[in-house]
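Before the break, one more example. Copy the sequence into your notebook; we will annotate it together after we see the structure.
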Amino acid sequence: MQRFTVISFVLLLTVPLHAADWMQWRGLNHDGVSAETGLLDSWPEGGPKLLWKTEGLGEGYSNISFANGMIYSLGDREDGCYLYALDVDGGKERWSLRIGERGAGKGNPYAFPGPRCTPATDGSRVFAIGQFGDLLSADAKTGKELWRLNVEEQLGGGVMLNKGDSGVTWDYSMSPIIDGDRVVLPIGGKDGTVIAFERDADAFKPIWRSSDVSDRAPYSSVVPVTIGKVPQYLLFSDKRIAGLDAASGKLLWSVDRPGKVAVCSDPVYWLDGENTCYVMVSSGYGVGANGIKVVAQDGKFQAEEIFAKPKLESHHGGLVQMGGHFYMLTQRELVCVDPKTGETLWNNRSVGKGSILGVDGKLIVRSEGSDGTVALVEASPGGYKEFSRFDQPERSDKFSWTYPVVYEGKLYLRDQGLLLCYELK
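Here is what the structure looks like once it is written out:
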């Protein structure tokens, strides 16, 4: 345990502490909750002040991460999929690096073009995976490529299939997670679903692969958690919800939980003391949400399903835990859920189907629809209370699936090639 604590402290020292909050997909703790405080309690009519916008980011649904005054993301441009860095003040491009081919598909007529992964950075290096499995590491300041490989061709990886043995996928959509001295990523395949590799190596150097679990990779990412003093990663595939030992990748516990077509939203958890963890997962296509109770005792784990709620479907908009309650946008409304029972404490149409972010005791929810409505809502089990809302300007003709992000007092909204930056202080 001490080893992981020291490693995490060293990681935070890699960049200034104020910049350590959003260095990867869903933030430093990978839970979709920002540590920002002192933000506006409500927004002016028409939304908060727009500070700047930048265009030309390319097609796709990649989110953004930050370090040392730069923003990192991915996008499809004319000749391929690119990783790039922007200046945090104004969005001017600093550098770009081609990852691989553009587009989407592999036989899926319903696939949506563009990358989905969000780059992860420690301020020194940046890691990203393109939609066709091209994984690379680059210098975060200059964009110089350090190493690359294709996880499907060179590591035998594979993404979950759309239907049965159709061979059709929605492409690689999971994001790398930096955890101490390693980067952790689901890649799928018979040799193990999840792989951990060295963060600081100048070549790809695996630490372990989860040989106990060989499911195809989900579209979701792993979630770090410590239960009973044992650091582990929550894995949510189309076969199960499981805990993998962070040191070795060994399977600590597993509960069967079949998914259909797409498993996209990451697991969410609530720790009820040191030894008990309540986990909820949710996916679309008629499956819904399942609750798992995990109890640690003497280094061993007991896990059991405690509820199944088919109507609580999170397609790909995410779930967050705040104050011991779970919040999510289903296919049609915003709901607050009791983690122990799965009971819906309240529900409201809000912005409809979309994505969610927790920050400063509130929720920022973003509609996937044509108006791209963004609302500020109280995170409370007592009922739905909305403070403000506005419609995103200059909407593209695509779904606004990229999650909202708050960093250093500013709200960021990406819509395909457009990035908007708003003042929240």
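Residues 90 and 196 are 35 Å apart (CA to CA). The first helix runs from residue 2 to 14. Try to locate both features in your own notes.
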